[in-house]
Amino acid sequence: MATPVYCEPYSQPLPSGYWISLSHGITQQNYNPVKDKIKVISGKSLPSGIHLQSHRKYEEFEGIRTDIVIELVDEHINISEPFGRLAKVIEQSKFFLDLEPGWDEENALTIDPEVWKTAIKFLIHYSIDIFKNIDRLIEEPEISPCKDGTIDLSWRTSRSRMLINFRKSEDGIRAYYYGDFYNNKQPIKGWVNTNTVDIYLSMWMRNLAV
Predict the structure, then answer these.
(1) Which end of the chain is more exposed for a tag (fewer CB within 10 A), N or C?
(2) Is 70 left (phi over 0), alpha (psi -120 to 50) or beta?
(3) What is the Cα–Cα distance from 39 to 193, expressed in whole angstroms?
């Protein structure tokens, strides 16, 4: 069994409206995530020089067999072989669901299965979106349970780092994120709803690709 990492929430909820995905915003063309319907939406304008056309590898990706089945509490997602290492990291995190109250030998809360499932689906969908657009995989994150019952995804690559914390809010589970190029260079911070893939967060996360 892996040793859990004890972490503190890195961010307090931001004011309402700090980062909002609008249903009438830009929708990426030809987006069709494997086995799990999810929209790619955003209400912001595209940065200069960024285009939304699908990568030439998109058609090839659609033809890859989805042989890996990831069980997510009460549902499952099929993913393709390029995501094999990601599947192993996800599988290793399932023990979070068996943690009992006080698992940190203090007063840590148990991990809500819905929070864990949402974090994993978020990771899968963003990984697929990035792969289809740049034909590269993002590095597998460290998945950690937090003392307050939330879940962290964290990356430290040679050029950038990112932390995403998943927690319940009044309108569902949100993902609060912070990323930069070290030393607070060009930081990105905010939150997104987890029932969509936000184009601009996904584009920034390309910096996590290997």
Answers:
(1) N
(2) beta
(3) 11
Structure tokens at 149: 């019952």
Q: Give the helix/strand (H/E) hosting 202.
A: helix 199-205
The 3-class secondary structure across 28-96, one letter per residue, is CCCCCCCCCCCEEEECCCCCCCCCCCCCCCHHHHHCCCCCEEEEECCEEEEECHHHHHHHHHHHHHHHH
User: Measuring CA to CA, how many Å separate 156 from each of 30, 151, 153?
Assistant: 31, 17, 11
pLDDT digit string (tens) for the chain, length 210 residues: 333 333 333 233 333 332 322 222 332 233 233 333 333 333 333 344 433 333 333 333 343 445 788 888 888 888 888 899 999 999 999 999 999 999 999 999 999 999 999 999 999 999 999 999 999 999 999 999 999 999 999 999 999 999 999 999 988 999 999 999 998 888 999 999 998 899 999 999 999 998
Task: List Cβ neighbours of 98 (8 Å cut-off, separation of 6 or more).
Answer: none
Q: What are the residues facing 187 on neighbouring strands? A: none
Please, are residues 118 and 194 in contact by the beta-carbon 8 Å criterion?
Answer: yes
